[in-house]
Each structure stands twice: as C-alpha cells, then as structure tokens.
Amino acid sequence: MTDWPPAATAENMAGQSEWVLVCEHASCHMPAEYDRLGLAAGAERDHIGWDIGAAALTRAMARRLDSAAILANYSRLLIDLNRPLAAESSIPTRSEETDIPGNASLDEAERARRVELMFTPFHRTVADLLDRRRAEGRESRLLTVHSFTPVYRGQARPWHLGILAGASRGLAATFLNEVAAEAPALSLALDEPYRIAEDDDYAIPVHGDARGLDALLIEVRNDQLRSAAAVEEWAGRLCAALGRI
Q: Which of 17, 184, 237, 240 has the most other CB atoms within 10 Å of its CB?
C-alpha cells in the first residue's frame, strides 16, 4: 500500500449478485506524516484503528456471492466513514479508553482535508456504483461488514454475531433466523452490540434506507475472525443464509 492510497478499493464491480458489500473500517493505515496520531507503536492495529477481520470477511463473502465490494483504505481514527460529519465521533479524540492526541484541537483546514481525501471519495465510490446499477436496471441490496470486540469497557459481549438495520428490520430478523438454522449453537442477536441511528451511522441510512434498498449491517465478534479458516467458515455460513433471503 502506498502512503496515500485512494480512499476506496473497489473490487469485482461487475459482480452479478444483488448484494453490494461495503467495509468502512477495513484498514488501519495512517500516512506517516500523522505519526500514528501520537499513539504508541502498534496501537493503531488494535480495534480502535479498524475492524479486525472485517476486510478479509468482506473479500471472502464477495468471492462466494460474486458481489461487488468497496473497502476503505484509511484508519477510522483519521475519519470514521460510518459516522455523519456532524457526529462527535467522526474524528474521535478518544476511542473507548484511549485518548487520540493527534485529533485534539484540529483546525478546520485539517478536518476539511480528511473529508476531501478520505470521506467524500469513499462515499462517492459507493454512491456511483449504486447509481450505475440502478441506471442499468439492476437490483441492489446493501450489506456493510463490521467486527466488534469480545469485551467493551469491562463488559463481556456474549454474541458471536449481531445484525443491525434501520428500515430493513424485518429482513434483518429473517437473516438472523437463517444464520441460526446454519449454526444453532451460536449466540446471535438483532441490534447488538449497537443500533442504527441516523445521527450516528452513515452507510445504512444514506446509501441504503434513503434509496429504498434492503440494507443490513453485520457485526461479527472479532475473536471469531483471527484465522483464514475461521474467516472462510463465517463467509460460508453468512453467504448460505443470504442466499435464502
């Protein structure tokens, strides 16, 4: 990866599946000039910097489904692509228990620079793909791929998978039931460990609900995605369930 890659990597854009996969937290990359935003070496590779395993899962699912996939190339610590620009967490000064010194007291010019270089082109890539598919008469359904930590602020999270939705809550419940049929021993939940909110989420409300598309967000606990074999197992499970809804 170059130090200043494009905001998005677009893969298999001619894929035949109705599902379009988006991974906003696919990368922990920060250009060298940011000096890791003042964090200790390696801290950006922890969950605060990206969704561990989410990029690999996105790619594995895209291969199985023959789906287009759009993945981010910058750390969410620079700017979070799944937050509205007005949200306090858009450019976080603190993530969970970690202060982000390099984001404290940013001037408007630096904020605008990150929007111009990272946020706007990423979401333009997503929007352009969905617009093109609609113009071609192709159906689209949006799936955004995330992972979450087993423990958050001292509280254990028992779920292996959460499925989140805004307007597509009925579809989310159906998907959850189909995954349960694939893996009845797993702990699954609707709207866990988070809920979709227009003032705190971007891709599902803007690219999905506002367009009238089926739109789901999946959250896999990241200790389930620590090996290539585990990623492939989850990809197979989720794609089998998607194929039935």
A: 17
Q: Cis before residue 6, ω within 30 degrees of 0?
A: no
Contacts with 87 (C-beta within 8 Å, 6 or more apart), sequence order = 80, 199, 200
| Residues linked to residue 143 through DSSP beta bridges, in sequence order | 21, 216
The alpha carbon of residue 116 and the mean position of all alpha carbons in its chain are separated, in whole angstroms, by: 20
Angle at which helices 228-242 and 54-65 cross, to 10°: 50
- Give 41's contacts (C-beta < 8 A, 6+ positions apart): none
Find all residues with CB under 8 Å of 108, minimum gap 6, and list them: none
Q: Any alpha helices (H) in 150-198, and if so which ranges?
A: 169-182
**How many Å is the maximal CA-CA distance in the chain?**
51
Q: What is the pLDDT of residues 13-26, one digit of tens each?
A: 999 999 999 999 99
pLDDT class of 1 with cuts at 50, 70, 90: low
**Which stretches of the chain are assigned E, i.e. beta strand?**
8-11, 19-23, 68-72, 94-95, 98-99, 141-148, 151-152, 155-156, 161-164, 188-190, 215-221
Q: pLDDT value at position 42? A: 86
| Burial annotation 55-70 (CB, 10 A radius, 16+ → b, else e) | bbbbbbbbbbbebbbb
Q: Residue 108: helix, strand or coil by DSSP?
A: helix
HSE of 155, CA atoms in CB hemisphere, 13 A: 7
